Amino acid sequence: MAVEKKHLEDGHSTRIIRVVFLALLLDLLGFTLILPLLPSILDHYSQKEDVVYQSLQSIVDWFRGAVGVPMETKYNNVLFGGLIGSLYSLLQFLSSPVFGAASDHHGRRPLLLLTTVGVMISYILWAVSRSFSVFLLSRVVGGVCKGSVSLCAAIIADLPCPKARNKGMAMIGVAFSLGFTLGPIMGAYFALRSADAELFYQGPALLAVLFSIADLMFILLMLPETLHKDSKGSSDSSGVQVVGDLLNPVALFNFSAVTRTKEPPSKQQMHSLKVLGLVYFAYLFFFSGLEFTLSFLTHQRFQFSSMQQGKMYFFIGIAMAAFQGGYARRIKPSWQIQTVRMAILSIIPAFLLIAVAWNLVVLYGGLFLYSFAAAIVVPCLSAQVSGHGTASQKGTVMGILRSLGALARALGPVVASSVYWLAGAETCFVVSSAFFTVPLLLLGCLERRKED
């Protein structure tokens, strides 16, 4: 009887993982269509008299003058795109824990449907945008409503078996890798096929709308609710306090919202959760900064065109998908922390190789190690965090983790690009790679506490 029950649970978990993988892949394909078009979109709106565009351009010009970025269109577009990306990440920092906590009360499926509708609206705004103001509004709506990743992670966290959760987090990573590999190619292709050169972005925007509709229908028809009625959360604190816990950065780093429930985690669990959150933030802060400045380095040192940049990111995406699909999903839960340490250790020589690379062989050697770390760290840390908290707290826990990652991705590129232009590429990559010892030391503290 026990064997049959386990077999049924494994079958249910496998089905949930497949549905989440496909739903998230559809979501990410729509999300990444815009990535190769952003420089052209910015060029397009720079020729129009748009007050909002000119205001943001003045901020970019101030930053460029402050850190010494050369007056070149390529760098302006990267910085402008980074500014919009930081805004998007800041909005996710605010919304992710709110959606996660709401899913603990109302269920994963309703919140996932709601955020998917919001993302669909953002794509419709993009498709009909004739001014930069409407385009920026579409990015703001998308940033606020982009709760799919934390909600999908909460669904995986609802699975009863640690091995299934580990596999599910790895498959979320695979969906990311495939989405960020295939989406940009599709976006570029449909932009080139546009009959109207003035509205080159409309084809990819309409395709993004179709992806979001397909995603909505797929979730509606295929995804069951994974949060049981008797597991829905209830807070012991006031609504104002709950909102404060979900928006205050200090409270987020302390996972305070998790403690204000009828069944708060033990002190040991809370300590582990806080350390894992710090490791996640520190890793993504340094990683996202160097990831952002990589396009500066390849353009400056190797004169990479947009097509060569695209091929480079295609290589990274394929390598990550191979590592996640073939290795990360098979890592035993008891080995995840050791594997994260190994992956972070590998990223130090990766960025050192990139720092000194004066030929493509050395560069791609560094990118291969970079891809390994990128494929392992986030899925393994997410799987570890997913084991904390009761069933009624998983959405809050995963939402807070996603929020910390969004904050890191908002701040990291600004700091790293400042160091890059003030101190040089080699100094930026060498110094930043040395700072990866910070998450390594935090992991050491976590393991020593477990031994005690």
From TrEMBL:
CDD domains: MFS_MFSD10
SUPFAM superfamilies registered for this protein in UniProt: MFS general substrate transporter
Residues of the Major facilitator superfamily (MFS) profile domain: 16-451
The family this protein is said to belong to: Belongs to the major facilitator superfamily.
Keywords: Apoptosis, Cell membrane, Membrane, Nucleus, Transmembrane, Transmembrane helix, Transport
A GO molecular function held by the record: transmembrane transporter activity
Membrane-traversing stretches: 16-38, 78-99, 111-128, 134-157, 169-192, 204-223, 275-298, 310-328, 340-361, 367-385, 429-446
Localization: Cell membrane; Nucleus inner membrane
Origin superkingdom: Eukaryota
InterPro entries: MFS, MFS_dom, MFS_trans_sf
Main function: Probable organic anion transporter which may serve as a transporter for some non-steroidal anti-inflammatory drugs (NSAIDs) as well as other organic anions across the luminal membranes of renal proximal tubules at the final excretion step into the urine.
CC terms in the record's Gene Ontology section: brush border membrane; nuclear inner membrane
Major location (coarse): membrane
Name of the protein this chain belongs to: Major facilitator superfamily domain-containing protein 10
Keyword DNA-binding: no
Topology class, membrane: Multi-pass membrane protein
Record-level GO BP terms: apoptotic process
